[in-house]
Amino acid sequence: MYQKKSGIDIIGKILDACYTYNPNALFVMSLMHQYEERGSLSKKQLEGLLSKAKKVKDMPQNWLGTLEAIILKMPTRYKSEEPIVAASVYEKGAEAGKLIESILSKYPEHKRVLYLQLKYNNREQISQDEINELKRFYKALKIND
């Protein structure tokens, strides 16, 4: 359990005042429980407490001002935006695809071209050397026609 700091506990007083105003409020009870267990509340929870405390008729204004100051001192945490994932990180090269199809139409068991087709279908990067190799295979096959 958390040991309370010495001094005035404004958050505890506000929680007690909200609880006595409406003892059936589950939100206030859960905040009280968390405050007793951990000794603090998050900025969002304090903002919710402030909105509830403003509804209490007999709440001293200096307590509300202190709670607002505590909230303003707390850092605002922003969730990072989800990265935009492109439809495909690697765009398939049309030239490589045409070369692979034409070579495999003639020689469907060409191992090197099958390997490059696998890379192409898995959207892996095909290097310029591999494209040159495909062009060389293509020229060699067209000469033999």
Global structural class: mainly alpha
- Average pLDDT works out at 84
- What low-confidence regions span 5 or more consecutive residues with pLDDT below 50? none
Proportion in helices: 55-70%
How many H/I helical runs? 7
Please give the number of β-strands: 0
How many domain modules?
A: 2
- Characterize the main sheet: none
Strand residues, percent: under 5%
N-to-C SSE series? HHHHHHH
Question: Gyration radius, to the nearest Å?
Answer: 34 Å
Terminal CA distance reads: 84 Å
Outline: rod-shaped
What does this molecule look like?
With 145 residues, the protein is mainly alpha-helical. It folds into 2 domains: 10-73, no CATH class; 94-143, no CATH class. It is built from 7 helices and no strands. It has helices at residues 10-21, 26-38, 43-55, 61-73, 94-106, 111-121, 128-143. Helix 1 runs antiparallel to helix 2, helix 3 runs antiparallel to helix 4 (61-73) and helix 5 (94-106) runs antiparallel to helix 6 (111-121). The radius of gyration is 34 Å and the shape is rod-shaped. The termini are far apart.
Key attributes of the depicted protein:
0% strand, 2 domains
Concise summary:
The protein is built from 7 helices and no strands.
Strand and helix map with partners:
Elements: H1 10-21, H2 26-38, H3 43-55, H4 61-73, H5 94-106, H6 111-121, H7 128-143
